[in-house]
Amino acid sequence: MGNISLSFHRAAAAVVRRVLEDAGHEVHSVEAPHEQLFGLQAAGEIDVLVSAWLPASHGTYLARYEDDVQMLDPHYAPYCVWAVPPYVPVEGVAEVADLLRPEVADRMTPTLDGINPGAGISRFSARMITEYGLDRAGYAFRPGTEQSFISRVERGIAEREWFVIPIWRPQYLNLVHGLRALAEPKGLLGGTDAATPVVTKAAFATLAPAALERLRALRLGNDGVEAIDKLINVNGLAPLDAADRYLRDAERMAR
After folding, report:
1. CB 88 within 8 A of CB 225
2. I want to staple 95 with a disulfide (CB 3.0 to 4.6 A). Which of 111, 113, 132, 183 is the partner?
3. Which of 73, 90, 91, 56 is nearest to 19 (CA)?
4. What is the pTM of this model?
5. Mind listing the pLDDT tens digit for each residue in 139-177?
6. How far apart are CA 103 and CA 92, in angstroms?
7. CATH 3.30.300.180 for domain 79-181
8. Which runs of consecutive H residues, i.e. helices, occur in 47-145?
């Protein structure tokens, strides 16, 4: 089983791993950046990929081998945004174009820090800089690592800095800091995707019926993934321990 090497993908994958193990499967986990992970599945080295964001964010990576895989039902509905901290007043910065207002541009940090270049949010953000003419006002997008991205948000909020963060839901930083999304009327952020587990057809034929039934019924939702992500990043739980707590709580609530 493979997942993109980001914390919220790790959170969702831990739940899927537990479902597979409960049905008797022996699971070995692999992590890799976006393009590399899809390449591993295309090469037959990954049976289950959790999860592809379709169609906008990851569809281009899946397209070259989609005839060899089976898609399961989506587990959540992710989407990308540009956001600002809650102390940046909405009357001053409500949408992306407001970043060009002289009084905003003078105060806003011009560099938008993101994650790795292969992520949908990174591709979309690099395009938005030019499409909105933000480059002419000194703005630039800079890809980075997950850790540099998280550190940048934590540092900026601690210093009450005005900055824009290219982010997405689900991501635990939204839950912790109450980040406020900016309106983006040009629709360049890909809309709402479907977070879809992708299984090779060979592996699909060997899935235990109990596992397949639970995976098809699994609806984590953005809130569920963010809750697990927070257990990992804020509470310090290992991903599988966080998944166990989530599943126990979900079972208790269902009674």
Report:
1. no
2. 183
3. 73
4. 0.89
5. 999 999 999 999 999 999 999 999 999 999 999 999 899
6. 9
7. no
8. 59-62, 102-105, 120-131
